[in-house]
Amino acid sequence: MDTHDVMLPQPANRRFAQHRVPLRVRVWNETFGYLLLVPALAIILGLNLYPTAYGIFTSFTDQSLLDPNHYQLIGLANYLKLFSDPIFQLSFAHSLELTISAVALQVFFGLILAHLLIQRVPGIQVFRSLAMVTWVLPIIAAVVIFRFFTLPNYGFFNLILTRIGLGQWSRNWFGDENFAFLMILVMHLWRNIPFYAIAFMAAMQAIPQDLYEAARIDGATRWHRLMFITLPNLRYIILVMVVLHITFTFNNFDFVYLATGGGPVTATEVLPTYIYKQAWSGYALGYASAGGVLMLIVLVILVTICRRVIGGYEAE
């Protein structure tokens, strides 16, 4: 038998086989993945995009909660009123001051605590577990603890000051205009530093130890190893934590409202509490929406700057 008489089955032309598949089947196969995203996209658009767009629209109106169905477009009047309001200016300054100081100090003390927690000493696992207690506590619990600690007569802080002979420094810390804002900052640090430390510690453990061994052989000091090995390898996680906590701190409402309500007077007034009061106490929904839009713009600018820095790092 001639070998040409036996022909092995050849695979059909791929393009020809594709044309044989019905059009509706090909369309279904290509769009099925996108259809799976529709529920998630609908939730995101419904819970985020629509309220944001409606809030921007409301900021150009004189809408009031007393009669929300009747309003007029007033252009930039709400924004002009905001910039001329001294309490808004003070609240904006407090928000920036709290955000910058809290995030910077959290990074600094988080690095120190991470360096301590990464040490190999007996019982360190227990300390690592205890370090997260402050972060997992509900915010209301943290505020109640601090309020109890700072009570004028029998608070823990005042009792300690009295015992060591500094009774003249005892005071109602959250009721003192000079110290209330400081206590808000301390609460932020007390709650968030352990979270920074655990994140930094995990990143430190991923750094190859060969780098440190080579640096020791070359005579590098601890300071040199920190500056030229540890910090460059932590750069990405530091920037991620900074982006997240700029957003969290600038938008934080719970700590201030539960602890002081923005007082005493306006010593701890920040943008979230100021906007809340304008909307729910002053019923000026359009005016409050204008403040919220300005907060959104500031956050977008800050996050964009940080993302550009991270993007530059990834490109390297």
The CATH architecture designation of the largest domain is: Orthogonal Bundle
* Low-confidence region ranges: none
Mean pLDDT: 85
How many structural units, i.e. domains?
2
**Number of E-type strands:** 0
**End-to-end C-alpha gap:** 66 Å
CATH topology of the largest domain: MetI-like fold
Class from helix and strand fractions: mainly alpha
Proportion in helices:
over 70%
The percentage of residues in β strands lies in under 5%
Quick one: CATH superfamily of the largest domain?
MetI-like
- Quaternary form: single chain
Largest sheet: none
CATH C-level class of the largest domain is Mainly Alpha
Which shape, going by the Cα principal axes? flat
Rg, Å, rounded: 29 Å
Can you write the helix and strand succession as a string?
A: HHHHHHHHHHHHHH
Count of helical regions: 14
